[in-house]
Description:
Radius of gyration: 14 Å
Number of helices: 4
Strand order of the largest sheet: 1-2-3-4-5-7-6
CATH architecture: 3-Layer(aba) Sandwich
Order of helices and strands: EHHEEEHEHEE
Shape: globular
Distance between the termini: 28 Å
Structural class: alpha+beta
Largest sheet: 7 strands, mixed
CATH superfamily: Gcn5-related N-acetyltransferase (GNAT)
Strand content: 25-35%
Number of strands: 7
CATH topology: Aminopeptidase
Number of domains: 1
Amino acid sequence: MDLVIAQESPLASDVVDLLRAHLAFAGQQSPPDHVHALDLDGLCHPSVSFFTARRRGELLGVGALRLLGGGRAELKSMHTAAASRGQGVGRAMVAHLIEHARRQGCHWLGLETGTGEAFAPAHQLYATAGFVDCEPFESYTRNPWSRCMAMSLVS
């Protein structure tokens, strides 16, 4: 597949464009107060590791891992460019982020995603990777717009 996943700045121009598409997608699917995607400042925070997926230099997807403390981490800003969906980019990014969390010493990995039909492919991706539904964590709440999922990283 010659897909290269690497840590990169979220401030690169093509990355900023894809992150804008990510925020626009989330904003079309959920009310503004239930869009939990990190903005650029959030993605540049020291607790966040940000990664890109590229093929021959072309940006195909992004993903981030935010350390929460106490051996816990959260997947953030998972997004695959529309033209690259169905090619395994998201699956490769999730696998990379899971391994990165393990290397960081994490024993628990969570995520929050939307609940609408547009999020069904993401739900399937996360379930296939081993995530299961969980109670809201951190500042997330039980509501009709959010779905929290988690997995143990303890072997």
